[in-house]
Amino acid sequence: AQTVTQSQPEMSVQEAETVTLSCTYDTSESNYYLFWYKQPPSRQMILVIRQEAYKQQNATENRFSVNFQKAAKSFSLKISDSQLGDTAMYFCAFSSGTYKYIFGTGTRLKVLA
Amino acid sequence: DAGVIQSPRHEVTEMGQEVTLRCKPISGHNSLFWYRQTMMRGLELLIYFNNNVPIDDSGMPEDRFSAKMPNASFSTLKIQPSEPRDSAVYFCASSLTSAYNEQFFGPGTRLTVL
């Protein structure tokens, strides 16, 4: 069975600093997709970034980037120049290309002024 | 473009009452999902529709829960009778059926059953 583990329930970072959120997963699939979703206090789930497993290059979206280590089954999210608006729950999710997402339990990130 | 629309945003009801949650997916999306989010269990997939047909309802907790999708632009999740343990945030999400399958979430309905 596929699983997604986020081992950091809570993290905090100073504004303008960099923070890395961890995610590991387990699968026997060779091709799959990984996602990071942000859930701010408004509750809306917003896609932050995604990675296709067959792509070697790490995905980047502005201040957000991932470190995808396929052999280690690791998919961490780096947020650079953290802003107060980055305060949210962050969920890592896995999909083997079917409809089903497997979500991690989330990491609550607080950006401190 | 309007995103996924859910109503109501908040619902407070008493145990035993019927509750109906509504969802309008993004136009053109042919996959629709209902999720439940609680502190204890995180995000759980309740049911998945593709082209208005229920494909996977294995996450529906019990017979008190039912979901319908009468057309491509509307879905309902009904709980009858409701119980306090049903209190949660219920999300609807939609996507295009593709290998890349990014899911777009609605704002959620916070249900409180007293």
Mean pLDDT over the full residue set of chain A: 93
Largest interface (CB within 8 Å) is between: A-B, 22 and 25 residues
Query: What proportion of the residues of chain B is helical, as a percent range?
Result: under 10%
Measured by DSSP, the beta-strand proportion of chain A falls in over 45%
Distance between the termini of chain A: 41 Å
Largest sheet of chain A: 6 strands, mixed
Structural class of the helix and strand makeup of chain A? mainly beta
Structural write-up:
The complex is a heterodimer of chains A (113) and B (114). By secondary structure, chain A is mainly beta. Helices cover 0% and strands 51% of the residues of chain A. Chain A is built from no helices and twelve strands. In chain A, strands 2, 5, 6, 10, 11 and 12 form a six-stranded mixed β-sheet that branches. Chain A has a four-stranded antiparallel β-sheet with strand order 3-9-8-7, with no helix packed on it. A two-stranded antiparallel ribbon of chain A has the order 1-4. In chain A, strand 8 and strand 9 form a beta hairpin. Chain A is globular, with a radius of gyration of 13 Å. The model of chain A has no long low-confidence stretch (mean pLDDT 93). By secondary structure, chain B is mostly beta strands. Chain B is globular, with a radius of gyration of 13 Å. The model of chain B has no long low-confidence stretch (mean pLDDT 93). Chains A and B meet through strand 5 and strand 6 of A and strand 5, strand 9 and strand 10 of B.
Features of the shown structure:
heterodimer; A: 113 residues; mainly beta; six-stranded mixed β-sheet; four-stranded antiparallel β-sheet; 12 strands; 0% helix; globular; B: 114 residues; seven-stranded mixed β-sheet; 54% strand
